[in-house]
Write a structure and sequence with these properties.
Blueprint (H helix, E strand, L loop, with lengths): L5 H13 L3 H13 L6 H14 L2 H14 L5 H13 L3 H10 L5 H13 L3 H10 L5 H13 L3 H13 L6 H14 L2 H13 L6 H13 L3 H10 L5 H13 L3 H13 L6 H14 L2 H15 L5 H13 L3 H9 L7 H14 L2 H14 L4 H13 L3 H13 L8 E6 L2 E6 L8 H17 L15 H9 L2 H12 L6 E5 L5 H14 L3 E4 L4 E5 L2 E2 L6
Parallel strand pairs: 3-4
Antiparallel strand pairs: 1-2, 1-3, 4-5, 5-6
Length: 545
């Protein structure tokens, strides 16, 4: 082709965008300018699309400048593409300025703003725009539902999902993916099963994207058997599907199952990615599979040309730390090829709390406070370590430092789904309509537990107070209140699923083992670390967590 006109250049750029070859898009665009080929609004729109997809902010700003000089931003598609670029790159105020200056707006520009607000964590502004939209399509509904799911507003995501269908919109694979994520976050298996039934009706159960989200939902709702069933029914498995199932086993503490599945993945010829190794190392950590974890970490660079990142090192530190190999964990941190991040020091600090290593724990906490001075968990863990060895003055000093810096402790919260409704509890909660019955059930359980040999572990209470006060403090933790409510609200033998926003404490872990045997029920607790399956007085973690 001897001479290329603007149409030819635009066609070539558009083709490169579709192939995700963004660096080539930018090269071609700059070459087009050097050769004096006039830009059109199609050129600018396509290049901005490449900027948005690749998060190429600097190139986006340059295109913005060129477009202003050429007067292209009065064109709807160009302006919408610029809004999308700034929103995806996290510059929500710049996106809003462009959006506000648009004389006319289409669904794309509205939806780009909604997604941008969700990315920046401002779901309220996103919903305000959503409600003002003159018209909505499936993409805009999905963007709002996805924003809610992404930011932990699961109940709002479900409400909007059902409202969307009332208005005649049919959910697509991405909508189902977002709403399944909401069910997973809420640990709402009944809602999840309803969504499952819907997607079967529309023939999406074999879609790999939806099926992976479905498997993840069941795993995070504590039903690992159903997660595996969905996985086994997938007609074709990609690396995301394998990672999802391995992660499910890891979250439930079934390390050997996770390792077995990983080996099956390799035998099937599927190449693992960096996420695969994060979930496998996590599985080894939760199950105490130290030798296997070391082997897989070493194989990353050697066998798969994957350079370990901070998260992989954090998993390795966690693996070694949980197993009590703190010196080796510290050596690993010292010899890391980059400066350790907060996740690495968090893993070490947690291990120091577990094994009572005060000196190393203080060192890890100091590094963490330098990186994240507003993270309440660091102060709590350090205070925990001091309290465990009876150094109450030091524990109080850490608490005072936390208060002086304006750092607030995240309150412990537990919830349980009963009859399609979420019931939430905090420690010492007396706001529930059935409070009297809940506390009566707890009192009855404690009498039976003590007869069975249960002793309150008051060493875990951080305050230097009388023994009776310590026992009172522990007896009304949020997860115990949620369990008591579940027992009085469901039929005998019904398994209970409790979700907690913090790590379950040692005393509650012991108490729930006793309760599961007394009431002859399976009690599943999901905390920030993992799942605990309590049955017949035992826990699936084997007291290793």
């Amino acid at each position: 082709m001897r001479k290329k006109d603007t149409v030819t250049w635009n066609t070539m750029i558009a083709a490169l965008v579709q192939r995700n070859q963004y660096s080539e898009v930018f090269k071609l665009f700059y070459q087009m300018q050097r050769e004096g080929i006039g830009m059109s609004h199609f050129s600018v729109t396509n290049v901005l699309s490449a900027c948005a997809r690749s998060l190429a902010l600097e190139q986006g700003k340059q295109i913005h400048g060129h477009g202003i000089k050429a007067g292209f931003f009065s064109h709807l598609y160009v302006a919408s593409a610029l809004v999308d670029t700034y929103a995806k790159c996290g510059l929500i105020e710049d996106a809003r300025q462009v959006f506000n200056k648009m004389s006319t707006r289409d669904v794309l520009s509205w939806t780009a703003m909604i997604s941008g607000y969700a990315k920046c964590g401002d779901v309220e502004s996103g919903r305000e725009l959503f409600d003002k939209m003159p018209e909505r399509n499936m993409v805009s509904w999905t963007a709002m539902i996805g924003g809610y799911s992404q930011l932990g507003y699961g109940e709002e995501a479900l409400e909007l999902f059902y409202e969307m269908q009332v208005e005649g919109m049919k959910p697509d694979q991405f909508t189902f993916g977002s709403v399944l994520k909401a069910c997973a976050g809420l640990a709402a298996p009944k809602q999840g099963k309803k969504v499952h039934a819907q997607l079967v009706k529309v023939g999406l159960e074999s879609n790999i994207f939806v099926a992976s989200a479905l498997a993840d939902m069941y795993a995070k709702c504590g039903i690992i058997e159903d997660s595996r069933y969905v996985f086994d029914k997938m007609p074709k498995l990609d690396v995301v599907a394998w990672n999802t199932m391995i992660a499910g086993y890891a979250q439930h503490g079934f390390g050997k199952d996770a390792v077995k599945l990983f080996e099956e993945m390799l035998q099937a010829g599927m190449k693992p990615d960096d996420v695969t190794f994060i979930v496998v190392l996590s599985a080894c950590s939760h199950a105490g599979l130290v030798d296997e974890g070391r082997k897989y970490f070493d194989s990353m660079a050697r066998d798969y040309c994957i350079t370990p990142k901070e998260d992989h090192y954090a998993c390795l530190i966690d693996l070694l730390g949980r197993a009590g190999q703190l010196d080796e964990a510290m050596d690993c941190i010292t010899n890391m090829p980059f400066k350790p991040n907060a996740n690495v020091w968090n893993a070490l600090l947690g291990a120091c709390r577990l094994h009572g290593n005060l000196e190393l724990g203080i060192h890890a906490a100091e590094r963490l406070l330098e990186l994240e001075p507003q993270a309440s968990a660091t102060y709590i863990l350090l205070s925990n370590i001091y309290a465990a060895v009876g150094r109450w003055d030091d524990a109080a000093r850490v608490r005072k430092l936390m208060k002086d810096r304006g750092v607030k402790k995240e309150p412990g919260l537990s919830w349980i789904e009963v009859k399609n409704k979420m019931h939430k509890f905090i420690a010492e909660d007396r706001s529930h309509p059935q409070t009297e019955d809940i506390y009566a059930m707890l009192e009855n359980l404690y009498e039976q537990m003590k007869e069975a040999g249960y002793v309150v572990n008051t060493n875990l209470v951080l305050h230097d107070v009388e023994q009776e006060q310590k026992q009172q403090s522990l007896s009304h933790h949020s997860e115990k209140l949620a369990i008591a409510f579940g027992l009085i609200s469901t039929t005998r033998g019904t398994p209970l699923l409790i979700i907690k926003n913090l790590r379950v404490c040692g005393d509650c872990h012991t108490a729930i083992k006793f309760i599961s045997k007394i009431v002859n029920r399976e009690i599943v607790v999901r905390d920030t670390s993992r799942f605990h399956h309590f049955k017949d007085g035992l826990c699936s973690c084997g007291d290793y967590w």
